[in-house]
Amino acid sequence: MPKPFHYGGQAVIEGVMMLGKKGLAMSVRQPDGRLNTIKQPLARIYRGRLRDKPFTRGLISLSETMVLGTRALLRSAEIAAAEEGEEKIHPALLGGTVALSLAFAVGLFFLVPLLATRYLIDPYIDSALLSVTLEGLVRIGIFIAYIRLIGLVPDIRRVFAYHGAEHKTINAYESGTPLEVEAVRNYPTAHPRCGTSFIVFVLVIAILVFALIDVLLGRPPLWIRMLSRIALIPFIAAIGYEIMKLGAGHVKNTLVRVLIAPGLMLQSLTTREPDDSQLEAAISALNEVIEIDTAADPGDSTEQPAAETAASA
């Protein structure tokens, strides 16, 4: 029996993008109040066998978030601003935006905590294990402060509300509830496969991995520590994805519920309660991507989409 496919998505500017098995759909609210829905097939890399393989699927999911997510954000900004015409995103703009976003994230969440620990804390301690642990706590603190800070921006708060709409819609669909605003409204804004939970797993796993490296190498020089923080990110992300996927499939287990609790709690910072118009956008996007998958596999009644991936941020 084929494994169930797991839908994912993310909030964009005035809308929601949903990822399916073979395509994506994005519904964005235009200034005139109408929903503008865009559908397109996924590239082969996002539909191939590697998407189902342990560890490689985590890297592909990360790629989906960076590339497809950034493209969706740029395109949604055009639609929300009522710009006419087809997609006008130049590959150089997309590539540059992804590169800058990646560099910013690596610098802020991995290198800044390392440098802060190295120059402000390390002179007063001798333990490599304690140093890495404190570095990890600084990293988590920076992440929470960053989320709180951007959440003060009104436009970001609206994106967070669309994030909540995305989660409510996925939760409703996963429960077998009809995708209608009145029904979807009753579901929670948190979801165990949210990208926020994924980041929490990554931040915790990073402490363990970096501690192993630094202890084994006997508190290596700063340049080696910096290199390890950058080079090991894909490895840590792949592990984090697998743990999150395993945990989300056993949410009724008491131990699992304890492990995923921090991620669910942190989602209170990255989601807001959506209004009905925002729920309509999320429902529209999910319905459209389900239609794409149904059309791509006519007559297939055995494989039923079920839940959300880490692509939602």
Number of helices: 10
Total number of domains: 1
Q: Which class of secondary structure composition applies to the elements? A: alpha+beta
Give helix and strand order, one letter per element, not per position: EEEEHHHHHHHHHH
Low-confidence stretches: 298-313
How far is it from the N-terminal to the C-terminal residue, by CA?
30 Å
C-alpha geometry? globular
Sheet-strand content, in percent, reads: 5-15%
Radius of gyration, CA atoms, in whole angstroms: 20 Å
Q: Give the spatial strand order of the biggest sheet.
A: 1-2-3-4
- The percent range for helix content is 55-70%
Biggest sheet, open or closed, and with what strands and sense? 4 strands, antiparallel
Q: Count the E strands.
A: 4
| Mean pLDDT over all positions | 86
Report on this structure.
The protein is an alpha+beta fold. The chain has one domain. It is built from ten helices and four strands. It has helices spanning 56-80, 91-120, 128-150, 154-174, 181-184, 195-216, 222-231, 233-248, 254-270, 276-296; strands at residues 8-12, 15-19, 23-29, 35-41. Strands 1-2-3-4 form a four-stranded antiparallel beta sheet. Helix 2 (91-120) packs across helix 3 (128-150), helix 2 (91-120) packs across helix 7 (222-231) and helix 6 crosses helix 9. The two termini are 30 Å apart.
Summarize the structure.
The chain has 313 residues and is of the alpha+beta class.
